[in-house]
Amino acid sequence: MSTQTALLKVMSDAARKAARGLNRDFGELLELQVSKKGAADFVSAADLKAEQTIFEMLSKARPGYSFLGEERGLIEGTDKTHTWIVDPLDGTTNFLHAIPHFAINIALQREGAIVAAVTYNPVTNELFWAEKGKGCFVNDKRLRVAARQHLAESVLATGIPFLGHGQHATFLKELHQISQRVAGVRRFGAAALDLAFVAAGRFDGYWERDLKPWDLAAGLLLVSEAGGKVTTVEGGDDILTAGSICAANLELHPLIRQRLAAAA
Question: Can you tell me the mean pLDDT for 155-162?
Fold first, then answer.
């Protein structure tokens, strides 16, 4: 059954409305003479505008809920049990370089657990969504994680540390452990979509470190509801606070974690 509840509809409508602005800005960015400062300023303005749109729509629909956004940080509401966790533009560097692979991420956390999630890719018009206990979907199609059982036939996604960010030496050790045992490793530059693609069975697994709650919150529910397993790289369940993630189907998850542990 792929009918969205009222809650999911609120989240989806907010994502689609914010996406209209991002699509317009992305079109302009394609035409923009990319000067270093100009383009970066342009993107941060697009980011802020998208977050404002989402904030206004969610606040109107569910007054009192707290809001944790990449741009504005935590805004505490009167309802302490619910928090929206929002990334208005995941894949900012892709956006900045006119690479059409980025997403809007909206998750709802209730008493510490993620209970609803939307990840929307405006370019492909793919809306990934899930509600706790009700399955995972893209548009109106039910999703399941891939069924592959061997690393040798698997394609994994990851993130690569870049200038001033991440644990470069750790990453290289992990890549050394993984890359020689799999069919491929991909780095597409948007954690939200990496997780959505694991849920959709496009990627067989995904691992990354040094992420923020808004990168991960929606995706961890998508993968779980698509039948996958999601933990920290070390195997814990405090994913949002630890900022590291390992996501895959039930067969591959321990195999990937084993290789990552061997790199430690």
Answer: 96
Q: What would the pLDDT profile of 218-227 be if each residue is shown by its tens digit?
A: 999 999 999 9
For the whole prediction, is pTM greater than 0.85? yes
How would you class 59 by CB atoms within 10 Å of its CB: exposed for 0-12, middle for 13-18, buried for 19 or more? middle
As given in the structure block, the two tokens for residue 63 are: 């007054």
Range of the domain at 184: 151-263
In the β-sheet with 65-69, what is the strand arrangement from edge to edge? 73-75, 65-69, 79-90, 103-110, 113-121, 126-131, 136-138, 141-142
The number of angstroms, rounded, from the C-alpha of 212 to the middle of its chain's C-alpha atoms is 10
Could you tell me where the DSSP H helices lie in the chain?
Answer: 6-31, 36-61, 92-96, 168-179, 191-199, 213-225, 239-242, 252-263
Reduced to 3 states, what is the DSSP secondary structure of residue 120?
Answer: strand
Based on the domain organization, do 65 and 31 belong to the same domain?
Answer: yes
Q: Are 214 and 250 contacting, i.e. CB atoms less than 8 angstroms apart?
A: no
Question: Residue with structure tokens 């548009």?
Answer: 139
Q: Does 194 have pLDDT greater than 90?
A: yes
Which one of 118, 142, 166 terminates a domain?
142
